[in-house]
């Protein structure tokens, strides 16, 4: 589903119906970062009322709050329990495939219930591809790409050395 036929909608203007939705949530923990998650709109008890709201809402005992700047759109195909959230991505962040297993790693957070409040992230694919935990996943990707380009340079250098050695043998 491309962005043009499935545009983001401002939550305060139009609210989604009950069911699975894709969300665009500005992070409260990492300035300038926008977290993309899939999570349900579901009914919840709010005082004497039942209201329809996203699973990552916040109930202060009086009102139900959602994060500022919240947007949503139709969800793709995901299997997610009503109480869970799945991190789909970080806006503007293109995660390179792992140089060991070739897969795009999963973006994980320790705060699965509210990724938009999390300042602890890591990427994981294979056991060689697991990254340390950092506050900002965009920084993790910078470090990965630097390491990958260094690894690629070593591969080229060893290739040149092999050619030089063969030349000397003549
Ligand atoms: Zn890997």
How are the SSEs placed, and which strands pair?
Elements: E1 9-10, E2 19-26, E3 34-46, E4 49-54, E5 58-59, E6 64-65, E7 71-74, E8 85-90, E9 106-109, E10 121-124, H1 137-169
Antiparallel strand pairs: 1-7, 2-3, 2-7, 3-4, 3-8, 5-6, 9-10
Bound molecules: zinc ion.
Zinc ion binds at residues 98, 100-101, 103, 125-126, 128-129.
Major pleated sheet: 6 strands, antiparallel
Bound molecules: zinc ion
How many helical elements?
1
> Could you give the order of the helices and strands?
EEEEEEEEEEH
**C-alpha-based Rg, rounded:** 22 Å
Report the count of strand segments.
Answer: 10
- Gap between N and C termini: 59 Å
Low-pLDDT stretches are: none
Number of domains: 1
Secondary-structure content class: alpha+beta
The portion of residues assigned to helices is 10-25%
Overall 3D shape:
elongated
Look at the structure and give the mean pLDDT: 89
Strand content: 25-35%
